[in-house]
Design goal:
- Pfam families: GST_C_3 (PF14497), GST_N (PF02798).
- Its EC number is 2.5.1.18.
- It comes from Corythaixoides concolor (Grey go-away-bird).
- By secondary structure, this protein is of the alpha+beta class.
- It folds into two domains: about 90 residues, Glutaredoxin, CATH 3.40.30.10; about 110 residues, Glutathione S-transferase Yfyf (Class Pi), Chain A, domain 2.
Length: about 220
Amino acid sequence: MSGKPRLTYFNGRGRMEPIRWLLAAAGVEFEEIFLETKEQYEKIIKDGVLMFQQVPLVEMDGMKMVQTRAILSYIAGKYNLYGKDFKERALIDMYVEGITDLMQMILIFPFSPPEAKEKNLDSIKERATNRYFPVFEKVLKQHGQDFLVGNKFSWADVQLIETILVVEEKIPAVLSGFPQLQAFKIRMSNMPTIKKFLQPGSPRKPPPDERYIETVLKIFKK
C-alpha cells in the first residue's frame, strides 16, 4: 500500500463523497476500493475491519477509520481546516451539522419511491431556501469575509460548496435569492484544489444512477 489514504465504499457519492471533497480540498491524493458485491462487503466485516459493520472505511496514518463524522473531523484537524481555537471549532461543528441535516435529505432522495420523488424534492427546496441557506447568507453578510469562520478556509466551507452544487443539480435556481452564496460559490469553485476536483476525470462522483442504487440495495439486502 502506498502512503495515500485508501477509501473503501461504493462507486458513487453516498456518505463517502464529503470525505472525498475534504481530502481533495486539502490537496491530498487518495486511492479507492469500490464495493460491488455482497461477498466483498461480508469479507471486510468478517475480517474485523469495520468497527460497526458499516462503510465508509478510510485507511490512513495506520488507522482503519469508520463513521463519517469521525473521519471528517480527523481529516479537518490533520490538514488545519478546523479553526484556530475551540470557539472556531464549535462554529465549524454547528455549520457542518446543519449542512449535514440538509445533505441527509439529498442522500436518501435517490432511494425514495417514484411516487414520492416530487414531494421529497419540494421538501429539499423548502428546507434549503427557508432554513439552511438563509443562515449562511446571513453569516457571510455579517462576517464580511470570504469564508464562514474567521478569515480562513475550513471544513465548513468545503461542506457548504459541496451542498450548494448538489442542490443546484436538482434545483438550478435555488441560489437566486442569495447573492452572498452566489459569490461564495464562485470563490470556492475557483480555489485551486477545489477547481481541480470539479474537473472531468477527478475522483468526484456523478449524481447517483440506477446502477449505483442497484449495487447499494443488492449489497445491503438481508
